[in-house]
Amino acid sequence: MPRHGKTSHPQPAPRPAVGMAPPPHGRIGPFVDIDFALRRQFNKTSFRPLQREIVEAALEGYDVVVQAATGFGKSLCFQLPAVIDRGGRDPFVNDGHANQVEALRAANVDARALNSDTSPAERHHIYRDLAAGHPRTRLLYVSPELCCRGRFRQHLQVVHQQRELARVVVDEAHCISEWGHDFRRDFARLGWLRQAFPDVPIMCVTATATPRVLRDILGTLALDDDSGGHNHNHNHNQGNGTWGMTFPSPQQLRRLRLFRLSPFRPNLHLAVRFVASSQDGERTRFTDLVAWIQKAPSPNRKADTADRTPVPGIVYTLSRDECECLAAALRQAGIPAHPFHSQRPRDAKEATMARWIRDDPACAVIVATTAFGMGVDKPNVRFVAHWRVPRSFESYCQEIGRAGRDGLPACCRLYYSRGDAECVANLVARSVARATTATNEHGAARRASFRTLVEYCEDTQTCRHATISRYFRHEHDPPCRGACDWHTNPQGIKMEKTEQLGNDEWSPRWLGSVDERRR
């Protein structure tokens, strides 16, 4: 009889325990109903495609790697096993997920966060809970910086010795790789988790892993050693292909389950608006943004209605000053916009987030820097706008993915000028130069990613969704069917580019080598 739902997997081969406690697998009862747990704890009636398979693989004790577009529902894939797994506790490595912690606690799941924002009293409570050996906390969200510190390691060792460590989850796993767009040194140090706890399964989730980044993730966390092995390439959705890397045969697959989903989001309409690098261009950009926000699609009103109440959305900017100024200008234009960035007072940010999450009409639009949105569960975001070109192609893909998580239509618009591209290229170069831990490979990866984004914006010959799929090495182009500006108005975007940008041929030297991004 299957242990969870309707399907089952063969038992994974045991890891060598090297003197550690036996693995925590097998705590799941034979009659656990994951559908009941889904309804009871998360108020959901069904899984999205492949979510069930991912949850079952985690509950069976496999290492699991999930690469899926932002908005797929990756959080549920590790939250549900943590709720079901009797006696197990899951540390979740990442920060910036306060919204998820609050939502879990509201659903009667004992989740806590341990990061730089954690109060001394809460930190003391968490460490005391861990030191007890049988913690009440089921999901602990911990920043990678704290995860690598000796005190946390010692407490986690106690939990493991009591057979209470069910699995380790690494979110934003692309940060492990120097070829990832957001490489962080502390993520690269997370290999200690496999060394210290070789019998504990690891789950990695990411939205932006290229084949090279995936190889680094597998290597750093020892997910491809003799006790693990690479895994089946679980393809789902239209437009899936191969990774562009070699996997062992099924007979060699023992501990790892790799799930790869297409990045195609058919409910997102992607568009680039060309803007002249001039004061007139800036005014045109703002006027267009206001009009576009006012007519953003809403499931609750007809397209031809006179109702111009803004729907929930996000406008991304590159700097804190611009974030404040743009939010103020939008409010003057009648758009209920509020700024959100790292230097805002904590109380103000929490209040803004709470109002936006509960659909307060006076706080419908968030103007934010790129830090906003990670870990935020708001399904009805109807639009995402980029006021200027982002710093990387992966960042763009992540940020547009925050729209339309409910599966209903949403719009994504990027305002592009060559002047912006020059400025952002300089920002990227200075950022790489200032980073004391950056390597030549990381610098090359960041330049290559930004080059891809510039080419994406300049291109008037290719489907937007196809470009994204090709970047992540999906062999088949997705069936866009009008979900981007190239399909809906191919001649119009060519004319706008000529009118706003002038010369159609533009390849500045700072874009770097084409070969860099193909490594």
Structure description:
With 519 residues, the chain is an alpha/beta fold. It folds into three domains: 1-12 and 49-85 and 167-184 and 200-262, P-loop containing nucleotide triphosphate hydrolases (Rossmann fold, 3-Layer(aba) Sandwich), CATH 3.40.50; 87-166, Rossmann fold (3-Layer(aba) Sandwich); 268-512, P-loop containing nucleotide triphosphate hydrolases (Rossmann fold). The chain contains 19 helices and 14 strands. The strands form two sheets. The chain has an eight-stranded parallel sheet, with helices on both faces. It has a six-stranded parallel sheet with strand order 9-14-13-10-12-11, sandwiched between helices. Helix 2 (51-59) packs parallel to helix 3 and helix 15 (418-434) packs antiparallel against helix 16. It is globular, with a radius of gyration of 23 Å.
